[in-house]
């Protein structure tokens, strides 16, 4: 870390070729860096009694750091990346991108939900939107509910550290929350309410605009397993979904239907197979009966036909020639697939 700090300082102060930083200053700079990293994850050096404290006199506050980081992006570089990404973007992704950017450009209360099943390019759109907004010198806060999901987003952070959402969310977290609102939607209601309160301080007209007039974009797939509500009834679980909350009434749902992952990975030989698979996935959940249930027919090639040792058969399918490759350090990362939901 000290090496990195000296390198960054030298790059920043290009004219000081022989830059020397005293040991005490270097130690303090390291501690400030550690403190910043901890704060991004909702912790602080004060949580670790054996650690020395940083002299934080010159330390920017975490809130300021987010803004400084956001405004530090190189606009020209982002503009170029954005132009390159627009050359790749698919037609329906382009419609979603343009609609959201229109809201950013005209500042017109956009609250969007990008709804698409896995592989339809939701993250690709996030990345394109992020460079588009940053190329204009504007701020975009990419947040996800879990630390691992933030890795997929450019400059991503956890929602609780960025928006200072209390980790334990309950009825007491905000005076204005409705008592019966399901826990999972409280965060969004709270953010909506807080943005109203903050932004309407300068201009009362913003009080009635969703999220105080900010463009807010969510994404996900409603076919995923629903949120867990401890000891909740079926109704509680349905209510916990964002589309049961009152803010959903002003949400603009943008749908993605083309599986970009299959298109990106298959050659002409597998085209028919991937096309069929691409059609089968979204068909699940389309024809539910009045109880919300349906029979799903699993294609033959996805079934494990070995009834004697199905587990070994699955392992052989996912990791063919496992014994021959056991010494290859890249074998498992190549075959592994970590799923996350942003
Ligand atoms: N326009 C595009 N051109 C080329 N590749 C694309 C495009 N859009 C998406 N992809 C590729 O398709 C794959 C799936 O995209 P992405 O991860 O954005 O989908 P997703 O909907 O976020 O998936 P998941 O819900 O599983 O996270 C990725 O490898 C991505 O790079």
From TrEMBL:
Its EC number is 5.6.2.3. Residues 89-183, 187-287 form the DNA helicase Pif1-like DEAD-box helicase domain. It is an enzyme of class 5 (isomerase). Its cofactor is Mg(2+). The keyword Iron-sulfur does not apply. Gene3D superfamilies: P-loop containing nucleotide triphosphate hydrolases. GO terms for molecular function: 5'-3' DNA helicase activity; ATP binding; hydrolase activity. Transmembrane segments: none annotated. InterPro entries: DNA_helicase_pif1-like_DEAD (IPR010285), P-loop_NTPase (IPR027417). Keywords: ATP-binding, DNA damage, DNA recombination, DNA repair, Helicase, Hydrolase, Nucleotide-binding. It catalyses: ATP + H2O = ADP + phosphate + H(+). One of its GO terms (biological process) is DNA recombination. Pfam families: PIF1 (PF05970). It comes from the Eukaryota. Belongs to the helicase family. This is ATP-dependent DNA helicase.
